[in-house]
Amino acid sequence: xxxxxxxSDQVVERIYTLAVDGHxxxxxxxxGCGDLPYxxxxxxxxxxxxxxxxxxxxxxxxxxxxxxxxxxxxGSNLDLKTASAEGILLAGLGGSIRYRPDGANQYTQRQAxxxxxxxxVRLLGSQVRxxxxxxxxxxxxxxxxxxxxxxxxxQGLKALNFLIRVARPRYHIHGHTHFYRNNLExxxxxxxxxxxxxxxxxxxxxxxxxxE
Length: 212
Hints:
Elements: E1 2-7, H1 13-20, E2 29-32, H2 38-48, E3 52-54, E4 76-77, E5 82-85, E6 88-93, E7 96-97, E8 106-107, H3 109-130, E9 136-139, H4 158-167, E10 171-174, E11 188-191, E12 194-198, E13 202-207
Parallel strand pairs: 1-2, 2-3, 3-4, 6-9, 7-8, 9-10, 10-12
Antiparallel strand pairs: 1-13, 5-6, 11-12
């Protein structure tokens, strides 16, 4: 089993204490679903000392590896990339639906499909190498009409429905929409063989390692 600490959208002050007290000592990976200060991700990385993979959200700066404030040092920005970690095949797609003309990491539905196709090309390489495309898809946005909202800013991306259907990941984790106590029971949805999870503000997940 691989144990994952997934975080998104909101800094949870209690996590600082939990991390120092060893509450997450058995965690194998940290996954960030966007809209978090990179200093927060860097803190978790420094305390837990395990690999960190993340995607940017619509409130994050445009990624530039040469600018220290636009990335989490020591972590891997997984936007439009794939990776293998702890026996899990990962892929990421950052950003959200475009709701402001000048918004960073925001895309129209059409633009999101172009990005999804680019990621799918990389997933075909995983299929050749590992015999499967993907175990866990990390995004900031939810899929269209799954954990999304009626507001323009929180409408899901249809390209993610496409990726779920074609790549068939075992898990899809995302942020962006804030699920509080009154709707927490709806934060996990099964779509075919894919378990879609809203991570806000954090979840500890245990999943079986894929077959190599």
